[in-house]
## 1
Amino acid sequence: MEAGFDSPWRCMDFQGLIRPVSKKDISDIKDIYAQFYTNPEDLTHFLDRVEEVINHSSDAIKWDFHYFVAEDEGEVVGVIGYRIPPQKLIDFTKTPKPLELYSLFVRNPKLGVGRKLIEKILEEAKKSNYTEMVLYSSDKWKVSWPFYDRMGFERAGILTHTSGSSGQVWRKDITNS
Ligand SMILES: CC(C)(COP(=O)(O)OP(=O)(O)OC[C@H]1O[C@@H](n2cnc3c(N)ncnc32)[C@H](O)[C@@H]1OP(=O)(O)O)[C@@H](O)C(=O)NCCC(=O)NCCS
């Protein structure tokens, strides 16, 4: 039996490395994103964000944009980003200096990788005196929503875009965590 979303056992404690993204990771990240983004435009869009961070683009610096990867035996098995949130997410926050968890994907679920990536960016955010983490997850990722509840995020409301698409917003204070 594979360790799918509905498997009964507690997830494993990931023992690999969590580190900032680097240029050599792009190909592994592309493979992970391609598992989830079947539309080539989406795939390019999200890979471009990663490249911008690696290349220290002016936008990446302006938005304090960073990515971390989980590495296991030389292979990237998960990726997470964070940045200063856009106004539509700031509207859901409660503290003065929020960050946005932007894009979290793992190669294989329920091996403890997502938890370790979130713990790492919360630690980084705290070091930089951010006060809160907010995130948006569109309806298409609904299957992952209980994961964010499990990670201690609280549901802050539904965000509906002008296009009509919508999703769930979460927030988590990081001042006392
Ligand atoms: C959602 C995702 C990031 C979670 O990462 P993960 O590595 O599978 O999660 P972990 O193994 O670290 O799980 C941590 C805890 O959450 C639980 N959990 C993980 N995914 C879950 C899910 N879909 N539903 C319910 N619980 C879940 C685990 O059982 C574990 O529980 P525990 O505290 O009892 O051990 C990952 O499964 C993924 O990439 N999914 C597909 C893409 C996606 O939906 N990304 C989010 C877009 S917003």
Note: The mean pLDDT is 93.
## 2
Amino acid sequence: MKQVLTLSMVIAAVLGIVVYAQEKRDPVMPVAKELPKAMSKEEVSKISDAEWKKRLTPEQYAILRRSGTERSNGKVYQEFKKQGGGSYFCVGCNTELFSSKEKFDSHCGWPSFYDPADTKNVKSVMETDGSGRIEVRCATCDGHLGHVFQGEGFSTPTDKRYCINGTVLRFVPAEAVEATKKAMAAEAKKKSE
Ligand SMILES: [Zn+2]
């Protein structure tokens, strides 16, 4: 009996390590319970490359600061598909980038939106590699987010596909957005009284 118990404990530990290693390789999208505090361009400009490395996970750093790409149809994308209403923020500087209102299923294996939540928060830059692709960056921290494609024939209001790496987005569910806004309004009312 004791041997069986020990053996099952060993198996459980090994399984735990395997699952942990898997999670490490396949990152998940961070979910916040309240609206994150956005950084200003000035604050962001003071962050050195070494500091970015410390602040971000290796996967987030590789995409946001080194223009990397997450694997398609990964865990982040599977989670993204299941998420309800809410907002998506830059994992580097907490700027609001996209919202579930513009989310659509393009079947490309990466989170897709037909427009940013606020156009001024996202900038498009022509790739210099001659591919003609248009890169999408966070307008505040200049972090790489993905690419935007136009005129592919999707029946969305813009026929644009913002193909975004979910690894560099922070999701805030709609209820949490509402709760934070209410709390902020109550706080402001208290101060004015
Ligand atoms: Zn950013």
Note: The first strand starts at residue 86 and ends at 90.
## 3
Amino acid sequence: MKAKTLAVAALIAATATTWAAGETATTTAETEAPSVSVADGLEAWSRIYEVASHPRCSNCHVGESGIPMWSGPSYGKTRPHGMNIAAGESRIGAEFVTCATCHTRSTQGNTVAHAAPRVDMDWQLAPAQADWFGRTSQEICSQLRDPERNGGRTAQDIAEHLDHDLILHWAWDPGGGREPAPYSLQEHIADVMAWGMAGMPCPNG
Ligand code: HEC
Ligand code: HEC
């Protein structure tokens, strides 16, 4: 795990210099040539979309409903989380039963089939604005590049956030017979960086 984190840190450091030059391309795409072509950026985006729309990610990235989903190969039929779970505006279930009641905090994952997944941070839904479940590639792309709706992040901030977030590490190693998110965390981070350097292109422009 340590080696993995270091490799990712090295990747970010290696791309940071290029990034500094490429950063303005996201805002002044017409005047500055992006350091990654738009075509390559769109290819990176299509892989990012495969990840974002995968159940290991989108089951938590639901909108205003605040209801996590159970879906994907190991879940049979797609359906709302059992036991009438709702996250409420708090997104952690504070108004009802908190997610942490079952998704306890631990450095040891819970790999028993059908047991509640756990990581060493508070389990909770993503912000309602990061509403990805059942959304199209264009919809998710527009949200992720919009600082008004993505927590004010640049693509580099997103890439760094991905490395820090233990829930994301879980999504690639979910245990309990669940299908992991596609590609790997490192590949996903590299794709987010490349997409950013291409000016965050979306399929419909
Ligand atoms: C257990 C629920 C959960 C799962 C599963 C999950 N996320 Fe999230 N996600 C969150 C929470 C909570 C936040 C808000 C964290 C923050 O802003 O610090 C978040 C925020 C994000 C953000 C910040 C962007 C934004 O618009 O706010 C990105 C990018 C992201 N997640 C990607 C992913 C990816 C990729 C996966 C799958 C590999 C994934 N998430 C799986 C809960 C989840
Ligand atoms: C009463 C216990 C309980 C509570 C409370 C609870 N969960 Fe769960 N959750 C479970 C169990 C058990 C599973 C595993 C189901 C399975 O694998 O068949 C699960 C699975 C999930 C999954 C599916 C993970 C995947 O594989 O994609 C998500 C997402 C999730 N919960 C989110 C939440 C959120 C968000 C909250 C709080 C709003 C919450 N849960 C509250 C018991 C609970």
Note: The chain has one domain: 35-197.
